[in-house]
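Q: Got a minute? One more chain.
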Amino acid sequence: MNLYLAKKTGKPLSLRELEVLRLVVMGKGNMEISKTLSMSINTAKLDMRSILYKMSVDNRVQAAVKAVREGLV
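A: Always. Here it is, folded:
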């Protein structure tokens, strides 16, 4: 996976955020993500919120599209 350096924050997505993003691209919801990565659903939601902020998008669909277009996953 490629690292994504966020323009807004200047920080890259963490490895965990990239894992979450990969699952989002696969169409997984927060519950499935939390179970797959052995984390609480609140942690999955927080990771998703961080991904949206770092990628400067409004929702998980936009994040998934941007991830695929930019070759992140």
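A: DSSP finds four helices and no strands in the chain.
Q: Perfect, thanks.
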